[in-house]
Amino acid sequence: MGMALPSVRVFMFEPDRLRELIRDAKAGNAESFNMLVRMHERPVLRLAQRFLLNREAARDAAQEVFLRLYQKIGTIHEDKDLGPWLYRTTANICFDLQRRAKNNLPLDVAADAASLEYDPEQNASARQQKECVLAALKELSPRERQAIVLRDLEGYSTAEVANLLGSTEATVRSQISTGRVKMRHFLRAQIRERE
Amino acid sequence: MNGHPNETLLALYAGGEIDTRERPGVEAHLDTCGKCRNTISEIEHVRQLLSSTFTEPAHEDLQLVRDGVSSAVAGSTGRRSSWRWNTAATAVVGISIICALLLNRKQPGVALKQDTVQLPSVPLVSRQFSNLSWSATPKQHRARAREAPLQAGIRAASVVTAPDGTSQLKLTTADPNVVILLSLEGTDRHEN
User: Is this prediction's pTM over 0.80?
Assistant: First the structure.
């Protein structure tokens, strides 16, 4: 099985510094809270973009995550890593957004992703391929997409994905496998259409 | 394993999530089945495509999130602060009203006392009341000082003649509860 490992990005923060920031933010220090936001904004926004496939909605979701953190900062345990709480909240907020939009948010990450990676040598077919993958991802149910994103893009284990989504490992495995199969069929159909 | 493993099982195998009990059977099947190997390689390809499709969030988006959170938190703090001020102000006003009501409340059974100070008879200073004008009524005669300068605190002066003929100078003060009565007996009211 010679496939590339999914991109795993681990953000390590000095535990003492994090504890101190959470403690200060709890005491009402706005600067410490802003620092916590800066530390976690990238993974939170990245997750939201991948769950929602819509830049504007993802920004709104990320803001909502941090506002919820602000409201709940008093209940956050200083000795625990803030990451899982933030990612779980991101998943829940994105899920609610998708449900409200009937899982039909306009797909606007494709163009942005292409422009962000803009390379004069990148040809139109490569861009088309990306758009196809995003369209395939959009075909999945919100929870299937979240499971696929967390497992195949973020590199979490199925147990971690289950914990983040508040689900069981068996359910997550089912969502992941169904999602992969759906995407494969969608892409095959797209390729056939073009041929 | 009889026949082909289902596609979802192959999808789990491709991602390494397959149950350890099912793995040997699937691997044995893959050794002999090109079609299932092809399915797995397609699923692996989908996973590779996914990894290469996404990029990190743009700096511009991160900045917008940061700004949005900062302003929302600042607004929330402001709202919280103004709410506190409003509550405090309402409490102060309420307490003031209650205190005022308690202080001004008439005590039951206790009538407001109007003190009448009966001063000893003193000769009337004619110059002060030289221009008293008299008005006659069936019951009493009253005169008001119109032009005479009154001392501070005294609002009006009048001469009151009782039915028995005795006269008194009545001084009304700024305090409605204090009236000064000066007996005019033995004095000359029309002294020049």
Answer: no
